[in-house]
Design goal:
Blueprint (H helix, E strand, L loop, with lengths): L3 E6 L6 H13 L2 E7 L10 H12 L5 E6 L3 H7 L4 E6 L2 H17 L4 E6 L9 H9 L12 H9 L7
Bound molecules: adenosine-5'-diphosphate.
Amino acid sequence: MASVAVYPGSFDPVTNGHVDIIERSSKVFNKVIVAVLHNRNKEPLFTVDERVQMLKESIEYIPNIEIDSFNGLLVDYVRHKQAKTIVRGLRAVTDFEYEMQAASINRKLDPELETFFMMTNNQYSYLSSSIVKEVAKYEADVGDLVPPPVPKYLYEKYGSSPSDR
Ligand code: ADP
């Protein structure tokens, strides 16, 4: 049976930390669906279409990946995609409490689904989409933090570029 996993997130924007989790999980599962969440409480910088587009440009070299977006409850989406596993990344203990709560509620909603946690590579443990946005906003170089297609989108959004400094 083919193993299909869903890696859900805001990806606002995708960072090198996300790409690392996607590359590594693509070696564990036959197929990984990277799914961008609609309807978050946080106000995103990028539209869902922009976030999907950045992901497509950034990870198109990985063959067993699908990029999608979804509304509503994660467990419903995972079932709809006929997946059995949710992939999440862990950076530090600060991620742990929220992730444990989310995994517990998802197990309660559907005991058939498993959540699979992957520890970040140490080199990315400080990296988050919020940090990337903060750095780009002040026109500093984000080249080491995100995949090559992403800086252009960030500087367009903020109307800036590191060369303006
Ligand atoms: P969410 O808003 O759902 O947390 P994110 O896009 O911020 O969405 O993150 C999606 C997933 O990727 C989460 O499991 C998060 O812990 C993980 N993640 C984010 N940044 C990193 C990183 N630098 N290294 C490993 N995992 C990460």
